[in-house]
Amino acid sequence: MSLFWQVDFPALLAAGLASGLCALLGNFLVLRRESLLGDAIAHAVLPGIVGGFLLAGALAAPAMLAGALAAALVAAGAIQIVRRLGRIEPGAAMGAVFTIMFAAGVFMLEHAAGRNLHIDADCVLYGQLEDILWLDAPDIWALPREVWTLAGVFAAAAGTALLLAKEVKLAVFDPAFAAALGFRPGLVHLGLVLFVAAAAIASFEAVGSILVIAMLICPPAAARLMTDDYRTQIVLSMALGVGSAFAGYGLAGFAPAFFGADWSLNAAGCIAAVSGLAVAAAALFGPRRLSFAGAAASLDRG
Questions:
Q1: Residue 299 pLDDT > 50, yes or no?
Q2: pTM for the whole structure
């Protein structure tokens, strides 16, 4: 079996699943104008992840997932409390809450390091995409645990979005109208928070929280700049996310060698950079930009 299937394929699969998952969920955040909420949750789940790790004493997915979900609920509740009691804008409330919780998570990371437990900040921030190996390829059941975890969360998120498509769309675009029809937009928002937290914990070991934040925002934002159609935006954002994952991984591995260097770049960082370039390209050359430029030129000629 070639090294591609053992080394590169599982890393590409994990990166593609994480990027597609985060892009899918990020659409609803962007459409609700709550993009910062994804950033807040990705930071706020850190103390829950570390707490689950400390309780389990190992990288046990169930304990860490439970801790992350609990931390996400605490963060979401704290944001609402700070927003209402302090009478400040949502962005300021999110910034205050996720900063405090992220600082608590970093403190807990240092505590874990002091107890000689195997978890560090680099793993949480940048992931370990290059260490995901499929040593027993082509045995499908021997795929790395990170791939199975990401696939499970992706299937759950996509299945829920399809099954509750009407309710989700109403809650995203017009929560008041959805409530008048008897739907529960608050439950949709809670489900979104939980799925973003699940995506963060499923992705952090493989790609890190930095890439989670980038993929929650960049592909949906780029797709939004390119189309006004709801379904097209979702599909396009996921395609941009997966495409950025593949392009970034290739850039990390082959760009230094092209210039004669004998080292490689961090794959997660390159993927995030490519997704950012996609947003810039959509803003500069997307249909909205071109149509605006055409309209401006017509006015000048008139």
A1: no
A2: 0.85
